């Protein structure tokens, strides 16, 4: 079976996972299907994002912090969705 989505020994190093961001529309959609609470338990809140140009190096990302959004984006490693 896949590892538990709440096992911090596996999931604590988020740098090695592809993260999926869930904003307001994604969270609302999951609420409609009555699964948001289960998904949210496996997420981490983030106030912004990092963006890289296609030819940028690993230290050349641009950080964007969002302060005007009604909810905070939640992220989770794609591998937790197994």
Question: How would you concisely characterize the structure shown here?
Answer:
With 82 residues, the protein is an alpha+beta fold. The protein has helices at residues 8-11, 24-32, 36-40; strands spanning 19-22, 44-46, 48-51, 62-65, 73-77. A 3-stranded antiparallel β-sheet has the order 1-5-2.
What's the N-to-C terminus distance? 9 Å
Number of strands: 5
Radius of gyration: 14 Å
Strand order of the largest sheet: 1-5-2
Largest sheet, in brief, is:
3 strands, antiparallel
What would your notes on this structure say?
The protein has 82 residues and is α+β, with helices and mostly antiparallel strands. It has helices at 8-11, 24-32, 36-40; strands spanning 19-22, 44-46, 48-51, 62-65, 73-77. It has a three-stranded antiparallel β-sheet. Strands 3-4 form a two-stranded antiparallel sheet. 5% of the residues are buried.
List keywords for this structure.
22% helix, 82 residues, three-stranded antiparallel sheet, alpha+beta, globular, 5 strands
Secondary-structure map with pairings?
Blueprint: H1 8-11, E1 19-22, H2 24-32, H3 36-40, E2 44-46, E3 48-51, E4 62-65, E5 73-77
Antiparallel strand pairs: 1-5, 2-5, 3-4
